[in-house]
């Protein structure tokens, strides 16, 4: 991408890149990306903070179920969410009278739907670990609950809040499927602009320039987020605080949590109801159509075959990301003997985190440029699992590294002194500690791969599409039955993803908080 953007006829040409960045349309795209991501981040934080408190510091019936349900949107396929919001906000939808369909408000709502779980889990995990004694001391000296929060709790949570907000902004700024399905061609972010420049305008140089600009911005954000995550907090407790029963003053936080749950459930319930309606009657015809080929030119294969392709691809992407992510986690978590070695490990850790923020569209575009011509003309090979494995790789690394870093190195030294080799030491010391987080990492990788759309939309072959690609094609089909089939396919894909995530949340415990 750097070569396409900056090198022309073997020489450096910065002027061409500046020309692309100086276009009026580029300015509009950049401004829309920045302000929509910023607004979505602020709303996600405002909704996520009270929910994080209620779900991690209070004990009430159904708390674990609500926590698990609010995690589901984080890994739902973007195409599914786009379809659900279009159905909710469309003219015939429950909220159609608000006139929000196809507006920036709908896009921001979709971004908040995805990312409020990041704030809840990241800040909630930090809130659970806070030492309660400073707050109790302040209350004993006459401070009101609001003063305790403002002067004691909020400063202690600030690193976690800022870190979560920076990651949410990064996710919002690199969102692709939500903007594409909810904004169409009227509103473009950097993501959708790269896709438009590549597939329709064939302006690879402009696409490369935007990709490089995005890469630099994401790198800077990841560096900031990494430093904030590493800030030591003197108020951390030695053990997790036990949740207490809600009091009268906690009613607002519990109420806001239930509001967040309702906002998350509304588009999904609307999607389910819409999939069960055909010709203004309750019917399973939309689900029966999943086995048929047709709907204009949208379906070259049945949607059921596309689901099988998605499952097989997700399995391959999962074992690839686990293998590579496990090796990376082992390398970067080992104690460093010198300052140079420590810097090298930190650099490697940051480098492999780039896919967390670099968009899947940029990744797919990079595959297209690199492997589309000799000597690496591999586009006829099944590249989708490799691309999806790279998308899931940071989730695996971020889940495993904190666990491996927290292991006492003296245990490894004791095993080695008793004659155990490196592999036996790893099997007896590291592997038992990392077993549950490894299950969580596998589940998250599988769920993310199952719904991945950005890179797949570049690389999937027409005869072997994944289900998210088929859903997007169905949305754009002129056939009247196509949209109903898209709803049914979206429900199937969302159900499969949700089942995986709920199982991971039960088996992996707090592993998500490490992200």
UniProtKB/TrEMBL annotation:
Q: Which CDD domains match?
A: TM_PBP2
Its subcellular locations are: Cell inner membrane; Cell membrane
- Tree of life domain: Bacteria
Q: Which Pfam families match?
A: BPD_transp_1 (PF00528)
Q: Where is it predominantly found?
A: membrane
Entry GO terms, CC? plasma membrane
ABC transmembrane type-1 domain location, by residue? 30-225, 307-504
Q: Where are the transmembrane segments?
A: 29-53, 65-85, 105-124, 160-187, 207-230, 251-273, 314-332, 352-371, 383-404, 438-462, 482-504
How is the protein disposed in the membrane?
Multi-pass membrane protein
Q: Which UniProt keywords apply?
A: Cell inner membrane, Cell membrane, Membrane, Transmembrane, Transmembrane helix, Transport
**What InterPro entries does this protein map onto?**
MetI-like (IPR000515), MetI-like_sf (IPR035906)
Gene Ontology biological process terms from the UniProt entry: transmembrane transport
Name the family the entry cites: Belongs to the binding-protein-dependent transport system permease family.
- Which PANTHER family does this chain map to? INNER MEMBRANE ABC TRANSPORTER PERMEASE PROTEIN YDCV (PTHR43357)
Its recorded name reads ABC transporter permease subunit
Q: What is the lineage of its organism?
A: Bacteria, Bacillati, Actinomycetota, Actinomycetes, Propionibacteriales
């Amino acid at each position: 991408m750097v070569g396409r953007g900056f090198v022309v006829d073997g020489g450096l040409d910065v002027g061409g890149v500046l020309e692309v960045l100086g276009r009026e349309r580029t300015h509009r795209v950049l401004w829309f990306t920045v302000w929509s991501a910023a607004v979505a981040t602020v709303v996600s934080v405002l909704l996520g903070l009270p929910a994080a408190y209620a779900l991690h510091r209070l004990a009430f019936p159904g708390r674990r179920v609500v926590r698990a349900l609010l995690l589901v949107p984080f890994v739902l396929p973007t195409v599914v969410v786009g379809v659900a919001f279009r159905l909710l906000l469309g003219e015939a939808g429950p909220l159609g009278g608000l006139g929000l369909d196809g507006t920036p408000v709908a896009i921001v709502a979709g971004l908040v739907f995805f990312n409020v779980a990041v704030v809840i889990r990241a800040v909630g995990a930090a809130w659970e670990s806070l030492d309660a004694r400073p707050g109790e001391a302040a209350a004993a000296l006459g401070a009101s609950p609001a003063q305790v929060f403002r002067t004691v709790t909020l400063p202690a949570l600030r690193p976690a809040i800022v870190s979560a907000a920076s990651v949410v902004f990064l996710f919002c700024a690199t969102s692709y499927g939500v903007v594409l399905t909810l904004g169409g061609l009227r509103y473009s972010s950097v993501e959708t602009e790269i896709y438009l420049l590549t597939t329709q305008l064939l302006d690879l140089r402009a696409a490369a320039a935007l990709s490089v600009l995005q890469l630099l911005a994401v790198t800077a954000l990841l560096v900031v987020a990494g430093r904030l995550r590493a800030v030591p907090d003197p108020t951390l407790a030695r053990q997790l605080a036990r949740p207490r029963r809600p009091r009268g003053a906690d009613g607002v936080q519990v109420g806001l949590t239930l509001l967040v749950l309702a906002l998350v459930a509304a588009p999904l319930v609307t999607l389910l109801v819409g999939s069960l309606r055909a010709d203004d009657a309750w019917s399973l015809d939309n689900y029966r159509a999943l086995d048929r080929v047709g709907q204009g030119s949208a379906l070259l294969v049945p949607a059921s075959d596309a689901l099988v392709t998605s499952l097989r691809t997700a399995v391959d992407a999962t074992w690839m990301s686990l293998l590579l992510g496990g090796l990376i986690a082992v390398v970067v978590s080992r104690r460093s003997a010198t300052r140079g070695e420590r810097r090298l490990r930190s650099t490697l850790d940051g480098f492999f985190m780039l896919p967390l923020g670099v968009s899947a569209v940029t990744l797919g575009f990079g595959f297209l440029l690199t492997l589309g011509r000799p000597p690496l003309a591999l586009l006829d090979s099944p590249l989708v699992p490799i691309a999806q494995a790279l998308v899931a790789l940071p989730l695996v690394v971020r889940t495993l590294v904190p666990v491996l870093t927290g292991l006492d190195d003296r245990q490894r030294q004791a095993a080695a002194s008793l004659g155990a080799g490196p592999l036996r030491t790893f099997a007896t010391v590291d592997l038992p500690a990392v077993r549950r987080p490894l299950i969580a990492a596998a589940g998250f990788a599988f769920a993310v791969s199952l719904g991945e759309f950005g890179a797949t939309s570049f690389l999937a072959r027409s005869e072997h599409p994944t289900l998210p690609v088929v859903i997007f094609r169905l949305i754009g089909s002129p056939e009247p039955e196509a949209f109903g089939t898209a709803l049914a396919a979206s429900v199937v894909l969302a159900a499969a993803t949700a089942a995986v995530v709920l199982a991971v949340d039960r088996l992996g415990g707090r592993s998500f908080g490490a992200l």
